[in-house]
Structure formats: structure tokens, C-alpha cells
Design brief:
The protein has 355 residues and is an alpha/beta fold. Helices cover 41% and strands 23% of the residues. Strands 2-1-3-12-11-4-5-10-8-9 form a 10-stranded mixed beta sheet, with helices on both faces. A two-stranded antiparallel sheet has the order 6-7. The structure holds nicotinamide-adenine-dinucleotide (NAD) and manganese (II) ion.
């Protein structure tokens, strides 16, 4: 019997609603599998913790998380706490402290969910976006001078290192190699940005030589938005910088039908530290406490977690159950259904037991 130690950090807004649902589903799955169990420890960190302690997590937070096999994260963000505090106080320190440099975002149209693309059906769009998660435009370098004066200057410096670009490129090629089509698109803006972006192109070509069985091409990020919209079936695995992939994956989520179903994994491919699994969406103040948050993104990311833990069969069982429930039309209002979080969760648990 394998026993996985999971650190749950539900945090803010609908985070606790979807993580509670996800943990229930994980336990149901373990019972169905019969050969595994999950020991879940919940950390009450986030904006409420901040309001009493002045920090989003304790100083030794990362130390406490180190012993776990994986981190299952909800969302951060509260109406009365500035976003840069919640983000830089909890989520980013975990990503950076544990060097989770590969952010993996699968997107596909689930059965029963309507894409805004007129002709899209399940199968038209089946992508994995790999986002560089440790440097680039979000490295935090830059500054402001002459504040408030007409000559004020603000800089936002993107840092790309050979080590950082090579490792994310290898990760993306390796992932592309495991997918049936073995297709990778490398996204940059190397026509206008001629330093770090040209380096991306060069390193892509170098790494490509290690993966002769992967077919790859290059796209500029602006043209990429057009290709994603007009020719979604031409894409498979995609790798892009921190900023570019951030934007492209929101577009991907929308094209697949809703932010409420989009998952993401923050992976340390070298497995020195626990990786972190979360829905892409935020804390969604507008629906918090109403019981209608879509739990599908948190189920899908749980499947990513299982795959990372080497439980591929359990991951497939979970996604099969989720897709079956979507196909039956048991969905929350954000994707056109009338069910609530509880009903979707119960339906998935039932499908797991029967599947
Ligand atoms: P959001 O993702 O919270 O919500 C955007 C819209 O999508 C809202 O209308 C919301 O109701 C809907 N939505 C999101 N998830 C849903 C779900 N599971 N089911 C049904 N509907 C869903 O984005 P926002 O409104 O821009 O941000 C709200 C807060 O969340 C902000 O404080 C922001 O900083 C934070 N945020 C956090 C993360 C994160 O923790 N990773 C990500 C994005 C935003
Ligand atoms: Mn984003």
C-alpha cells in the first residue's frame, strides 16, 4: 500500500471549496484503486492568516512543505489585500523556493463543453503549454527613477539564462516525445527582441538535435494567437517564456470553454522538492461561498499530480470519470450547467466507483 503525503493549501476565495472537493475525490480514487492512500495535511495559510500574522505563511513554511510528496494548492487573492502581497507572499515563494521551473498547462475541449470556436469539437484542440516558470519577464528585475516627474522612467527587465532556457527546452522536447504526435512549437518574439529571444531560438535548435524524432517549429507570439484561434488542430506541445505562456494559456483556457476547467502543474523535474498542483483560476470573489465553483480544474490538476507521482493508471481513471460526468451534462453554471460543486463532486465519485 503506497501512502502519499499531500500538503493541501486551499488558501483564499473558492480555493477551499475546490480543494475540499478534490481531496474527497482523491480519497474515493484511492479506495477504488485499493493499492494507495493519501495522507492529506491542510495548511491554513493565505489572506486570513495574513490579516492576523502579517505574512501569508510562516517563516519556516517551505521547511514544513519539504517533506511532502506533492502540494495541492487552491488560489490566493482577497478583496482587501493587495494582489502583489498574496502572490509574492505564498504562491511565488513556493514556485521559486522549490525551483518548480516547468509550469505545465494541458488544454483540451472536454466532452459536453462548448468551445467559443464555431467548428471546434473534442479532439480539435488538445495542447500542452509548457511555461518557463523561474525567470524571463517575471524575474523581478527593474526599477523606477524620478517618481512622479515628467522624466520618470520605469524598467521591467527580462532575464534569460542559458541554463534556464536549456532546461525548459529539454523538458518541452521530452514531453513532446511522449505525446502521440511528437510535435513541438517554440514561441518567441525574436524579430523585435533580438537578445534573449534570439538566444531562445538558438538554444531550441541546439536541443532539437537531441530529439530527432520530435518535429518542431517556431512561432512569433502574436502570430501564435492567430494560429491557436484559426488552426488549433495544427498545434500539440508548446513552449514559451513566462509572460508569453501566461497570456497564451489564458487564451487556451478560454478556447477550451472556461477558466473553471483549466489545470496547471508547477514541476521540479529533478524531483529535489515537492511539485505543486493547482487550478489556473484565482479566488473568484464573485462566486465565493455560493457553492457553484467549478471543481473540474482541481480534479484535472489532481490527475496531473497522480501522473507526477507515477500513478498513471489512477490519473487516467480520474480523468475518465471527469469526462464522463461532463458528457452527462452534470456541470456548473460557468460552463452552462445547473449543478453545484457538491453535485459535480458526487457525480465524479460515483463515476470513479463504477468505472
Ligand atoms: P478569477 O480566476 O478568480 O475569476 C475570473 C472569473 O472566472 C470570475 O468571474 C470567476 O467567477 C470565474 N471563475 C474562476 N474560477 C472559476 C471556477 N472554478 N468556477 C466557476 N467560475 C470561475 O480571476 P480574477 O477575478 O482576475 O482574480 C480574483 C483574485 O484571484 C485576484 O485577487 C487575483 O489576484 C487572484 N488570482 C489568483 C491566482 C492564483 O492563485 N493562481 C490566479 C489568478 C488570479
Ligand atoms: Mn495568468
Amino acid at each position: 500500500m503506497k501512502d502519499y503525503a499531500i500538503a493541501a493549501i486551499p488558501a483564499d476565495g473558492i480555493g477551499p471549496e475546490v480543494i475540499t472537493a478534490g481531496v474527497e475525490v482523491l480519497h474515493a480514487l484511492a479506495q477504488r484503486q485499493g493499492d494507495m492512500r493519501f495522507s492529506v495535511h491542510t495548511f491554513e495559510w493565505g489572506s486570513d492568516y495574513y490579516k492576523t500574522h502579517g505574512v501569508m505563511m510562516p517563516e519556516d513554511g517551505l521547511e514544513q512543505l519539504k517533506a511532502f510528496d506533492a502540494i495541492y494548492f487552491g488560489a490566493v487573492g482577497a478583496p482587501d489585500v493587495p494582489d502583489h502581497i498574496t502572490l509574492w507572499g505564498l504562491r511565488l515563494p513556493i514556485c521559486q523556493g522549490f525551483d518548480q521551473y516547468a509550469n505545465v498547462r494541458p488544454t483540451k475541449i472536454l466532452p459536453g463543453i462548448q468551445s467559443p470556436l464555431r467548428k471546434a469539437v473534442p479532439g480539435t484542440l488538445d495542447w500542452v503549454i509548457v511555461r518557463e516558470n523561474s525567470e524571463g519577464e517575471y524575474s523581478g528585475h527593474g526599477g523606477r527613477a524620478h517618481r512622479g516627474l515628467p522624466e520618470e522612467v520605469g524598467t521591467e527587465v527580462a532575464i534569460f539564462t542559458r541554463t534556464g532556457v536549456t532546461r525548459i527546452m529539454r523538458y518541452a522536447f521530452r514531453l513532446a516525445q511522449t505525446r502521440p504526435r511528437k510535435l513541438l512549437t517554440v514561441v518567441t518574439k525574436s524579430n523585435a527582441q533580438r537578445h534573449g529571444m534570439v538566444m531562445w531560438d538558438e538554444i531550441a535548435a541546439e536541443v532539437a538535435r537531441e530529439f530527432p524524432d520530435v518535429t518542431w517549429d517556431k512561432m512569433l507570439v502574436d502570430a501564435m494567437t492567430v494560429r491557436m484561434t484559426l488552426h488549433p488542430e495544427s498545434l500539440d506541445t508548446i513552449v514559451a517564456t513566462n509572460l508569453h505562456a501566461d497570456i497564451l494559456s489564458d487564451l487556451a483556457g478560454a478556447l477550451a470553454g472556461s477558466l473553471g476547467v483549466a489545470p496547471t502543474a508547477n514541476i521540479d523535474p529533478e524531483r529535489r522538492f515537492p511539485s505543486m498542483f493547482e487550478p489556473i483560476h484565482g479566488s473568484a470573489f464573485d462566486i465565493t461561498g455560493k457553492g457553484i465553483a467549478n471543481p473540474v480544474a482541481s480534479f484535472w490538476t489532481a490527475a496531473q499530480m497522480l501522473e507526477h507521482l507515477g500513478e498513471g493508471e489512477a490519473a487516467i481513471r480520474l480523468m475518465t470519470a471527469v469526462e464522463r460526468v461532463c458528457a452527462e451534462g452534470i456541470m456548473t453554471p460557468d460552463v452552462g450547467g445547473t449543478a453545484n460543486t457538491r453535485e459535480v463532486t458526487q457525480a465524479v465519485i460515483r463515476a470513479i466507483a463504477e468505472g
